[in-house]
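Risk register update: the risk of archive-format incompatibility is retired. Evidence:
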Amino acid sequence: MESKLKLGILASGALGFHVLKSLYKTHTIAFIATNSTSNQIVELSTRNKTLLFVGNPRKGKLFKALNGIDCDVVLSVNYLYLIENDIINLPEKYAVNFHGSLLPKYRGRTPHVWAIINGEKECGITAHLINEACDTGAILYQKKVNILADDTGQKILDKYKLQYPFVVNKVLSMIENNSLSPREQAHEKATFFGKRTPDDGQIDWSWQKERIYNWIRAQAYPYPGAFTFYEGVKIVIDSLSYTDLGFDNAVENGTIVKVYNNIPCVKTSNGVLKLKEIRNLNEVRFYENSILK
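Archived output:
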């Protein structure tokens, strides 16, 4: 059954596209705002002849482009930009963001990646009211998602892809039924993690093996990847495993203590890790007692 709610959608990337595609089946979409690289969203909105804005919405740009259009609810799904009060106050009912963490923990960008890096056992999705700050609005609904020992950043996104439409529709149903009960976040418990870039992925071999393991799996393909340098060549690593190989604590961290079929086993501060998937393995030849930097 089609909902009576008219929606404005702020969305980016594959996750935003996936949710938007499901919303078209049940809701009226008044407008869509996205960024220039979200081609699937642009194509979908164009095909459905929906009012589309592409670019930075701030300083009144989106508000002006909407030209007085009305909607009941604005939804932000994986959107790259913070919005201002002109868009927050636009809908008749609510402006809601769907954030990939269990707020107030992990405010900011790529929260699921940071959660894996930090060894968390769970992450999740939070629907919250939008204000002009970053991920600080009152919570409407939360859905927990387990992080398994071999989950990568992409595997968590795959789990989110299954759960996001459910969470979005749950909140929309609550809005229609007037059953929302917003609760303020416990701001004193909040954590914030900033935007990551490909250059942030370098491995520090003096870290403990557990942190290195999480660091690598969090950024595995199709993300840019965790990396190190070997004889001046940048090595991008997508997976690794723990070993029971012995080591001399006096040996420099990052030392290759064993090589199996050109797969190195590397000494860290508390153990030896075997690198399993290396994107550019054919570019180098590893030798025992050499160093990764």
